[in-house]
Amino acid sequence: MKPKKAAIAVALSMLALHVCVLGLVRDEYLRVLGSNLIQIACAWLACGFALWIEMSPKIDAYKLHKRALKHNIGIAPGQIFSTQGQFKNYFRLSYGLPWSERVEEGIKTLGELIRKGV
């Protein structure tokens, strides 16, 4: 194999491993969040390190954002992704941090806030 092709093969292998590891981290975020909620809908975006979470229409993501900040939890309320105030019951959750006890506790707290209806 020529050096350039070998470097590309190694880079692609590393990318595949990276995507696999991120998938495991993403799945862990969803497992903990889902176990603390009655029902969520989630879309996995092929790019980035974020989950797009749909909650009950009764829950305002901006209010959830403000309550979560009091627990040092950062989410992006769906309204900030719309110029017309849409996505009020959606939020974006990053899973870019490595999994840890602190992250797990934050996800559990977020799930409790959602279950309580903020």
Counted beta strands: 4
Strand order of the largest sheet: 1-2-4-3
The CATH superfamily label reads Aspartate Aminotransferase, domain 1
Order of helices and strands: HEEHEEH
Low-confidence stretches: 3-22
The CATH first-level class comes to: Alpha Beta
How many whole angstroms does the radius of gyration measure?
Answer: 17 Å
Number of structurally distinct domains: 1
Secondary-structure-derived class: alpha+beta
Number of helices: 3
Short description:
The protein is of the alpha+beta class and 118 residues long. It has helices spanning 3-35, 61-69, 101-115, and strands at 41-44, 50-54, 76-77, 90-94.
Keywords:
Aspartate Aminotransferase, domain 1; 118 residues; 4-stranded antiparallel β-sheet; alpha+beta; single chain; disordered N terminus; 48% helix
Please describe what this structure looks like.
The protein has helices spanning 3-35, 61-69, 101-115, and strands at residues 41-44, 50-54, 76-77, 90-94. The chain is of the alpha+beta class. It has a single domain (3-115), classed as Alpha-Beta Complex (Aspartate Aminotransferase, domain 1). A four-stranded antiparallel beta sheet has the order 1-2-4-3. α1 (3-35) crosses α3. The termini are far apart.
How does the SSE layout of this entry go?
Elements: H1 3-35, E1 41-44, E2 50-54, H2 61-69, E3 76-77, E4 90-94, H3 101-115
Antiparallel strand pairs: 1-2, 2-4, 3-4
Helix pairs in contact: 1-3
